[in-house]
């Protein structure tokens, strides 16, 4: 995407992706990732955002490995390293610390209240991410139909989502989406 | 850590009779690499549960508690869960090993794919294929949201707060931190601890 050396620099990327990781609740915060990486910073295009997100669904392990793809698109290998370390490092550290604290204070009334306050926020974040992904990846009625069909299959059956994503990729190639 | 007079502290005693398998950082790395490989396309928490129960590291109740907590801390749930189980089992090094284990396989594949796709650009057929995959990826995201929304709706004010979060971040594209402060603050007030009978 960018020429080598013209990227925003390792530290800038590391800090930005650390911020994106720390404000992801309930999984991915795609809305904020799109707002910052595509909108404010213009580091990646909407097409790269959508491509990376679908690639993430096909990878073994957590599907937010798409951040590694975004980092690579921004600044090559160093960008990929900065994005991965920044996105996963601080949140993992926080989780490990939280696990140890929780073992001692899990019944504290304010911790319970905080959990209850965080749950609806996490749900809203996920739904906002779905809206943004729909806006960046669905450009036709065929695409919308494909998304709906995939949703019904995933919702109603126990098919592994990789097969659904791969099947949609084949259909996309055939239909020339 | 009190030393019983009948039992010399220098004796290397096991953690207890019928103690679970030792969970060294190396074992954590190995188990979570396996979890990542079996969890292509999601279902990671389920694979994690099966793996740690099989190792005898945790009971089902302990796992459920860790899982709830992993959903509450920011960041990807599956990685958070790995960090938490690693920390519980073997401290900081354990957390590091578990996170490295769950990230490694996908990281290698993703770096390969990125190197191929970003430098060269995509032929039209592959571009069409990825557009199709993106439609399914949206469906994956929506199905992942269903259980989270369901739980959120049971919380006091959950429906209103979820909808407001969705509107503020998805439709209005507002900055996340002020929205977080306002809506999680409101949630805290709504769900503040009240005087309840001690038996809950």
Can you describe this structure in just a few lines?
The complex is a heterodimer of chains A (177) and B (200). With 177 residues, chain A is mainly alpha-helical. Chain A has seven helices and no strands.
Describe the structure using short key phrases.
heterodimer; A: about 180 residues; mainly alpha; 7 helices; B: about 200 residues; 2 domains; flat; disordered N terminus; Chromate transporter (chain A); CHR_Transporter (chain A); chromate transmembrane transporter activity (chain A); membrane (chain A); transmembrane helix (chain A)
Would you list the SSEs of chain B in sequence order as H and E? Answer: HHHHHHH
What level of helicity do the residues of chain B show? over 70%
> How large a portion of the residues of chain B is in β-strands, by DSSP E?
under 5%
The SS-based structural class of chain A is mainly alpha
User: How would you state the average pLDDT of chain A, rounded?
Assistant: 87
Low-confidence stretches of chain B: 1-18
Mean pLDDT of chain B: 81
Strand content of chain A: under 5%
Question: What does the main sheet of chain A amount to?
Answer: none
Bin the helical content of chain A.
over 70%
Terminal Cα span of chain A: 23 Å
What is the chains' assembly state? heterodimer
Beta strands of chain B, count? 0
Q: Can you tell me the residue ranges of chain A where pLDDT is under 50 for at least 5 consecutive residues?
A: none
Helical segment count of chain A: 7
Overall geometry of chain B comes to flat
For the record, give the distance between the C-alpha atoms at the N and C termini of chain B, rounded to a whole number: 33 Å
The overall number of domains of chain B is: 2
Family (chain A): Belongs to the chromate ion transporter (CHR) (TC 2.A.51) family.
Subcellular location (chain A): Cell membrane
GO cellular component, one term (chain A): plasma membrane
Keywords (chain A): Cell membrane, Membrane, Transmembrane, Transmembrane helix
């Amino acid at each position: 995407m960018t020429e080598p050396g013209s990227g925003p620099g390792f530290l800038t990327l590391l800090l930005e992706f650390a911020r994106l990781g720390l404000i992801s609740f309930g999984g991915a915060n795609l809305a904020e990732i799109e707002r910052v990486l595509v909108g404010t910073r213009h580091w990646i295009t909407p097409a790269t955002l959508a491509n990376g997100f679908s690639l993430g669904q096909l990878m073994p392990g957590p599907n937010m490995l798409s951040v590694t793809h975004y980092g690579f698109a921004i600044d090559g290998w160093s960008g990929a390293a900065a994005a991965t370390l920044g996105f996963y490092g601080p949140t993992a550290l926080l989780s490990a610390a939280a696990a140890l604290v929780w073992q001692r204070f899990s019944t504290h009334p304010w911790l319970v209240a905080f959990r209850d306050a965080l749950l609806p926020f996490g749900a809203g974040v996920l739904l906002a991410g779905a809206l943004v992904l729909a806006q960046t990846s669905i450009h036709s009625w065929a695409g919308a139909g494909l998304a709906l069909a995939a949703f019904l299959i995933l919702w109603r059956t126990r098919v592994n989502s990789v097969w659904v994503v791969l099947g949609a990729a084949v259909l996309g190639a055939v239909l020339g989406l | 850590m009190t030393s019983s007079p009948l039992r010399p502290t220098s004796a290397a005693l096991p953690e207890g009779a019928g103690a679970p398998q030792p969970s060294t950082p190396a074992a954590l790395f190995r188990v979570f690499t396996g979890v990542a490989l079996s969890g292509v396309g999601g279902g990671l928490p389920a694979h994690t549960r099966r793996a740690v129960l099989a190792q005898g590291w945790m009971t089902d109740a302990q796992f459920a508690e860790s899982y709830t907590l992993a959903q509450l801390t920011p960041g990807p749930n599956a990685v958070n869960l790995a960090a938490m189980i690693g920390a519980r089992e073997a401290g900081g090094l354990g957390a590091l090993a578990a996170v490295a284990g769950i990230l490694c396989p996908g990281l290698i594949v993703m770096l390969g794919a990125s190197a191929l796709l970003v430098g060269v650009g995509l032929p039209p057929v592959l571009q069409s294929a990825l557009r199709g995959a993106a439609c399914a990826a949206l469906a994956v995201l929506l199905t992942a949201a269903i259980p989270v929304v369901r739980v959120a709706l049971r919380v006091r004010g959950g429906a209103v707060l979820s909808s407001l979060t969705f509107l503020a971040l998805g439709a209005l594209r507002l900055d996340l931190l002020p929205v977080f402060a306002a809506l999680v603050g409101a949630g805290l007030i709504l769900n503040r601890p009240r005087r309840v009978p001690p038996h809950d």
